[in-house]
Design a protein that fits this description.
mainly alpha; MetI-like fold; 12 helices; 77% helix; globular
Length: 237
């Protein structure tokens, strides 16, 4: 019979250094990965929203690929490209960058799985911005860069926040790809899995409770930011 964890077990769980570190590492790596998605995914989303070019459908298919393939395959693919026994992995090791069993490896995996959700959200945001507004700005003397940062980006900002939330959510929930690339250091889903396999449901439930609570709090804050923050009707003059 499955029972809910007791209050004592929940309190005891968060007091364990291993649990605290795992939850913090999940939130930290997911946030960093989503920021990487913002930095690289925003210009790509704008290009996909505004331009037609040869191979565009192929690019979109590649972006969506991590959404549809099994999660462990993502980890295997990353190791197949950047593992220590492959040319890219050897180059990274010579630069002092190690993916296998490292925080860097976790972030790389989370970037791979979370970026598609961010790009698709922001692409829809840019598509909702009328090109005529950009044309007016250009007519008034604004350059392409100024038009992007002062017209297009503010109007698509809510989509960026939503995309960021989705990327963080996808990253925090990731297990299959991370466990292939970096079983250690443990993020929360890996710790929950290990405790479930070793000790059963009673030992893993309290950790799962704290991960759900932290994730819910984080997403509520981000949602409040999305609704109360940037107003798509406001454009910097």
């Amino acid at each position: 019979m499955v029972t809910a964890p007791s209050g004592e077990a929940i309190v005891a769980a968060i007091q364990e250094p291993a649990v605290y570190r795992a939850i913090w590492l999940s939130v930290y790596t997911a946030g960093i990965a989503a920021l990487v998605a913002v930095f690289f995914g925003t210009p790509l989303a704008y290009v996909l929203a505004r331009y037609s070019f040869t191979g565009k459908r192929i690019v979109e298919a590649i972006i969506d690929l991590p959404i549809v393939i099994p999660h462990p395959v993502i980890g295997i693919a990353i190791l197949g490209i950047a593992g220590r026994n492959y040319w890219l992995g050897r180059i990274l090791l010579n630069m002092g960058i190690r993916l296998m069993g490292s925080v860097t490896g976790i972030i790389v995996v989370l970037v791979f799985v979370g970026t598609p959700l961010y790009i698709n959200s922001v692409k829809n945001g840019f598509e909702s911005v009328s090109p005529r507004l950009e044309s007016v700005a250009r007519t008034l003397g604004a350059g392409a860069r100024s038009t992007f940062f002062r017209v297009s980006l503010p109007l698509a900002s809510r989509s960026m926040v939503v995309g960021y939330v989705m990327a963080v959510a996808r990253s925090i929930s990731e297990f299959g790809a991370v466990v292939v690339v970096a079983y250690h250091p443990m993020i929360a889903p890996v710790l929950i899995y290990e405790r479930y396999e070793a000790y059963g449901l009673d030992y893993s439930q309290p950790v799962a409770f704290w991960l759900i609570l932290v994730s819910l709090t984080l997403f509520l804050l981000l949602r409040m930011l999305a609704h109360r923050g940037w107003n798509p009707g406001e454009v910097n003059a």
